[in-house]
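Duplicate of #3305? Posting structure anyway:
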């Protein structure tokens, strides 16, 4: 077994997710890793939470099938709340060896205005973070 026994793959159920999934499939196969597909539902009402949770479950299920087809053990972790805080808690509470996420490629001003989950995590966790730039619709 390699150094990455348990890999958290954060998904935001957007088109950029496939970039990290494709990369982690190769990494997890070579490392004999278990992958935990993780999504944080960030909602403001119960109705919105229910709708976003259903959307997340459908999105995650298609990626779960990709990992299972490659022979990679996969788990699902659905959280609710502020993404950066919930991910930090999950990472610190469990024994992950790597966090893998796709980035949207926001410019510096957008990161200042909207924040960056990856930027937050790099200052608050002690395990490696793998960032893959996901293609935006206008990049294709």
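Output from current build:
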């Amino acid at each position: 077994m390699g150094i990455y026994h348990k890999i958290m793959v954060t998904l935001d159920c957007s088109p950029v997710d496939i970039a990290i999934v494709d990369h982690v499939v190769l990494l997890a196969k070579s490392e004999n890793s278990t992958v935990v597909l993780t999504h944080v539902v960030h909602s403001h009402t119960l109705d919105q939470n229910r709708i976003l949770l259903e959307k997340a479950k459908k999105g995650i299920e298609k990626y779960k099938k990709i990992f299972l087809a490659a022979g990679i053990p996969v788990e699902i972790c659905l959280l609710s709340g502020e993404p950066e805080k919930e991910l930090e808690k999950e990472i610190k509470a469990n024994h992950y060896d790597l966090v893998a996420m796709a980035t949207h490629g926001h410019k510096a001003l957008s990161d200042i205005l909207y924040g960056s989950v990856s930027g937050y995590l790099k200052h608050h966790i002690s395990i490696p973070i793998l960032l893959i730039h996901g293609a935006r619709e206008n990049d294709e």
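Confirmed duplicate; merging threads. Residues 109-114 have pLDDT under 50 and may be disordered. The longest strand covers residues 34-41.
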